[in-house]
Amino acid sequence: MATRRPRRLRKRHLDGEIRAIVDEAVALSWRVRYVADQIHLEGGRSETARGVLRGLVRYGARTVPQLAFARSVTRQHTQEVVDGLIADGLVEKQPNPTHQRSHLIAPTTRGIEVVAAHDAEDARTMIAVGATMKVSRADLAITVRVLREMREGFESDCWRPTR
Questions:
Q1: What fold, for 27-155?
Q2: CA end-to-end span of the chain, whole Å?
Q3: Which of 109, 125, 98 is nearest to 38 (CA)?
Q4: Which residue, 20, 25, 71, 23, is CA-closest to 49?
Q5: Where residue 49 falls among pLDDT bands split at 50, 70, 90?
Q6: What are residue 105's DSSP bridge partners?
Q7: Whole-model pTM above 0.85?
Q8: Which of 63, 66, 124, 148 fits as disulfide partner to 102, beta carbons 3.0 to 4.6 Å?
């Protein structure tokens, strides 16, 4: 199922404004989602399902509540995603030594192989995109540092209104 090509971002802000960085980050996020949907189309899995599976492969088995908390979504939504991954044979329930009713969800061998294939395709895509960019490694390092600091700022309570 091909999706409609997203439109280009037209809004411009003065260089150096935090708003401009946020707008570019949001536009980039949407574009990356579109590209990921195109290159991983064959599996028919949602972005959320791919993210949950990738997280389980990278960080190990987790309970559904732990997966939901990490993504800031409901346990019920995460359970639906996990049920789909179980039905596809990509994850399995394992006994949880610390809790009788909340099983650990772990990737299967097939799930690990799917993530490895996705990672290889992602790497190919990143190399292709990187070849079109006219920035230095130092520029990229600064970009990562600035985005990390901005994310950490949004993760703090500094933005909450004071009463």
A1: Arc Repressor Mutant, subunit A (1.10.10)
A2: 49
A3: 125
A4: 71
A5: very high
A6: 62, 93
A7: no
A8: 63
